[in-house]
Amino acid sequence: MEKFKEQATQDLLESGFITQNQFDEIKTYRSLNIFSLNAELKFLLYLSVVSFTSGIGVLIYENIDTIGHIAILAVLLIVIAICFYYCFKNSKGFQKTETVFEHPVLEYLVLAANILTCIFIGYLQFQYKPFGDNYGLATLVPTLVSFFCAYYFDNKSVLTIAVTGLAAYIGLSVTPQTLLSNNDFYASESLSYSAVMLGILLILWTIYSRRIALKTHFALIFLTFALHIISIASISNMVSFDVFTWILFTVILAVSTFYFYKISYQYKAISLYIFMIIYAYVGVNVFLFKLFENIDFSEIWELFVLILPIYFISSIVLFIKLIKNFHKEITA
């Protein structure tokens, strides 16, 4: 690895991208054998937050009869208040551009406070039902809190929780009412329409945020959620027996694939590009299966068995080639 780095640096010098003085400085720095523990420490902090919040949940579950509901809620509220007080006190306030805490621990303290808030509201609703039987509202409240924290403290982890909560709220809002009047299939179809609309709203919000320069670095998170939500909803309905439904969602998947193909180049996001290809590949296979499902292959099954391995091998080769070309184009 070291020889590769040295050769790469030498190539940069010979190509004129760096000066001799820069080359000497790079060589001197590498000779110090300094390495960063930043990623490892952040992972340990994240693991600590997850372990702590999970431990709170286990503690509540195992001692719910002995500790008492009021005591549990009071302790949770105190811990949440302390976390948020410390975070607000040391934050730079809301800014439209990307901001970071002076100390990385505060970023994970925001995450801990947000998760504990979700636990608090969920436990409060489960035990005392302040929102009645409206579990959708009980989901929406921590979702709104998460969105506020994500934008105020510029926290991507909290933003992920917020978008997940929003998706859960839409699912809880759509499914129960539909199940009362229809069977499972139509409930699933109704939920799929809502999922596609949510994906479109996330895309529109990304476009609007970019226009007003509001936390533009959040775009990749919104687009990733939109890609997964729209694609999964479309593919799940492409197997429908209703002709209109599978044609409609085939068109939606095709439009989504084209859009995310363009946007992956715009943001130079290889993750979007890879998942876009995977979903498109699955969609194409489902579409072909729907086209040929009424055709009798009994007379040509030997040819079909021969072609199938070639098809899958060609697909793998094409997939690798597309990824290599994409990486080459965005790094050129």
From TrEMBL:
The keyword rRNA processing does not apply. InterPro entries: DUF2157. The chain crosses the membrane at residues 43-61, 67-88, 108-128, 134-153, 158-179, 191-208, 220-237, 243-261, 273-292, 304-323. Residues 11-158 form the DUF2157 domain. Keywords: Membrane, Transmembrane, Transmembrane helix. Pfam families: DUF2157 (PF09925). This is DUF2157 domain-containing protein. It comes from Flavobacterium hungaricum.
